[in-house]
Specification:
Layout: H1 4-15, H2 21-28, H3 32-44, E1 64-72, H4 80-85, E2 91-96, E3 103-109, H5 112-123, E4 129-136
Antiparallel strand pairs: 1-3, 1-4, 2-3
Helix pairs in contact: 2-3
């Protein structure tokens, strides 16, 4: 699907999306124009889905992370509750999960008071939700969106 050069390019731009084509070319040992073309093809194939800026949540008064396990009364596989949850700005991730719960949701808010408001005023009113269980994060050891790109065997 991807070759060794593509893997090198992907690893570079995952760690620094602002790396120029010239910088990537020097590290990979190719011309900048060839790097530009490879990146364009990776984007076109959907391997590169976009570019995002990582912000410091504490600097934006969003220092509290919580995971919410949600049970909902909906037909299996419909994901309707998940789609409603996706409209809530504090919700960062929504995972449809197997087991007793239906969803695992990651949220970021300022503090426990804001978490309570979120649960009562934004999540609670969703009709299909029957219960929630919340786990508050005390410390984050690792948080990344970077994927491990391994060499082919």
């Amino acid at each position: 699907m991807i070759d060794e050069i593509d893997r090198k390019i992907l690893n570079i731009i995952q760690s620094n999306a602002r790396a120029s084509h010239n910088e990537i070319a020097k590290e990979v040992g190719m011309a900048a124009s060839a790097i530009f073309e490879r990146i364009r093809k990776l984007e076109k194939r959907g391997i590169i889905q976009g570019y995002e800026t990582r912000l410091n949540p504490k600097a934006l008064d969003l220092g509290l992370v919580a995971f919410i396990f949600i049970r909902a009364h909906e037909h299996v596989g419909t994901l309707e509750t998940g789609k409603l949850l996706a409209h809530i700005p504090e919700v960062l991730e929504i995972h449809d999960v197997a087991g007793e719960d239906c969803y695992l949701v990651k949220v970021r808010v300022a503090n426990t008071e804001a978490l309570g408001v979120l649960l009562r005023e934004k999540i609670g009113p969703i009709d299909a939700i029957s219960s929630t269980r919340t786990t508050i994060v005390l410390a984050t050891v690792k948080e990344t969106a970077q994927l491990p790109i391994k060499d082919e065997p």
